[in-house]
């Protein structure tokens, strides 16, 4: 169903403008007149240049979380699903989400269930989202499950933000440091070299080494830049392959410092997804099948798939996670307690909260350690440059 822009006047004489979805201009005008608007000018919304292409702005997890919270609130307040979708589509600032909601509403009007209509938009509503809603519709608890989805998405957004924050600061500092270093080697060092040559004296080893490094980058700057770009592109292409993805995912888990934070984030994400699905009425096997594909890590996915296969044969989930050796013993023991007591869903949610806090503490601790470390490294580089540049000057002063 297309969108139309309108301008006109309300009953009170106030100028109004906005957008409305309808099958035609006539249909849009008819609905607007029923609202009491007059003096209307209605025109189709121009199609986005990047619509339905890979360049189109995607629906972020944060936008999906906001939509889910608003949707859950409306449904909980007694507003029908169709009306809630209509209102949310009109106020959405994301074109892709807006079109998806309009299509979902149209699908429901034609007889499809909510989860079936959402399943037609996998790039907006993933398998986890659809599976939880399917179970909710079967159990008649759509409102409750929507709130669980809100909690899951909001926690997931917070978790990802914490992990990103742990990487952004050192990345920016190192990028600036390397930029300054290249500037010194390419522009500052050559100006000092002219002064050194005029003296005619033998240069100290640190200064001579610095000049050789500067000459190398001056003579081979574009070769170095091209080689670095080629290496980066090669790595990206390799990481997109099946074996490359597995290798990089393995490295992300076990690399020092970042690996600890990432591993705890994976534990939190896995526990929260599985707990949310079990709380919504999805079976353990069904939930494991969905969660395996949404962990975001190939190594963890293989572990969960293997665990699901053993659970299908009658084994316990806790025993399979322990055999994998990837999950902490505390995590495994809590899962076993949940299985034995019949409270696996609530146990997993508590585990997710615990590991969320662990990620927050790990990020804070790593930043506290990383800041002085980076200062020492950068200070050492700057100090070495200053010594190498001014050592010949000091020697000249000593001769005088």
SSE arrangement, N to C: EEHEHHHHHHHHHHHHHHH
Give the second-level CATH assignment, the architecture of the largest domain. Up-down Bundle
- Total of helices: 16
Distance between the termini: 87 Å
Q: Can you tell me the overall shape?
A: flat
The chain-level structural class is mainly alpha
Please give the number of β-strands: 3
Helix content: over 70%
CATH homology superfamily name of the largest domain: Type II secretion system (T2SS), domain F
For the record, the CATH class of the largest domain is: Mainly Alpha
Any idea what the radius of gyration is? Answer: 30 Å
**Whole-number tally of structural domains:** 3
Mean pLDDT: 84
Largest sheet: 3 strands, antiparallel
pLDDT < 50 stretches: none
Strand content: 5-15%
Query: What is the CATH topology classification name of the largest domain?
Result: Receptor-associated Protein
Identify the strand order in the major beta sheet: 2-1-3
Structure characterization notes:
It is built from 16 helices and three strands. It has helices spanning 25-34, 61-76, 81-91, 95-109, 114-119, 127-139, 142-199, 205-219, 221-239, 242-254, 258-279, 284-292, 298-312, 317-324, 329-341, 344-399; strands at residues 3-9, 15-21, 38-44. It folds into three domains: 3-44; 61-147, Up-down Bundle (Receptor-associated Protein); 148-400, Receptor-associated Protein, CATH 1.20.81.30. The protein has 400 residues and is mainly alpha-helical. 29% of the residues are buried. Helices cover 75% and strands 5% of the residues. It is flat, with a radius of gyration of 30 Å.
């Amino acid at each position: 169903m297309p969108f139309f822009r309108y301008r006109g006047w309300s009953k009170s004489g106030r100028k109004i403008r906005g957008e409305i979805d309808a099958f035609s201009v006539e249909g849009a005008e008819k609905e607007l007149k029923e609202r009491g608007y007059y003096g209307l000018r209605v025109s189709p919304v121009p199609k986005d240049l990047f619509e339905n292409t890979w360049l189109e702005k995607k629906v972020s997890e944060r936008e999906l979380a906001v939509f889910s919270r608003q949707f859950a609130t409306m449904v909980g307040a007694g507003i029908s699903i169709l009306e809630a979708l209509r209102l949310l589509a009109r106020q959405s600032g994301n074109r892709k989400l807006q079109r998806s909601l309009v299509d979902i509403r149209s699908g429901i009007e034609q007889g499809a269930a909510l989860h079936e209509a959402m399943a037609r938009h996998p790039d907006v509503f993933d398998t986890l989202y659809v599976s939880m809603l399917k179970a909710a519709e079967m159990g008649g608890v759509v409102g409750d499950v929507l709130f669980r989805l809100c909690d899951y998405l909001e926690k997931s957004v917070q978790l990802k933000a914490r992990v990103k924050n742990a990487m952004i600061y050192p990345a920016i500092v190192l990028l600036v440091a390397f930029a300054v270093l290249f500037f010194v080697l390419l522009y500052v060092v050559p100006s000092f070299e002219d002064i050194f040559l005029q003296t005619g004296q033998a240069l100290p080893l640190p200064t001579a080494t610095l000049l050789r490094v500067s000459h190398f980058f001056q003579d081979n700057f574009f070769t170095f830049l091209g080689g670095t770009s080629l290496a980066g592109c090669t790595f990206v292409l390799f990481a997109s392959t099946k074996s490359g993805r597995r290798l990089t995912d393995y490295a992300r888990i076990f690399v020092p410092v970042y690996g600890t934070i990432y591993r705890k984030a994976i534990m939190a994400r896995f526990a929260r997804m599985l707990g949310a699905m079990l709380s919504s009425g999805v079976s353990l096997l069904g939930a494991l099948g969905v969660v395996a594909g949404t962990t975001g890590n190939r190594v963890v996915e293989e572990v969960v798939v293997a665990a699901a296969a053993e659970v299908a044969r009658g084994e316990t989930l806790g025993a399979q996670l322990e055999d994998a050796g990837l999950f902490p013993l505390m995590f495994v023991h809590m899962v076993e307690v949940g299985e034995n007591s019949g409270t696996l869903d609530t146990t997993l949610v508590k585990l997710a909260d615990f590991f969320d806090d662990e990620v927050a503490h790990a990020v804070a601790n790593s930043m506290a350690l990383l800041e002085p470390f980076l200062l020492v490294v950068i200070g050492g580089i700057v100090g070495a440059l200053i010594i190498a540049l001014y050592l010949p000057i000091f020697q000249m002063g000593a001769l005088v």
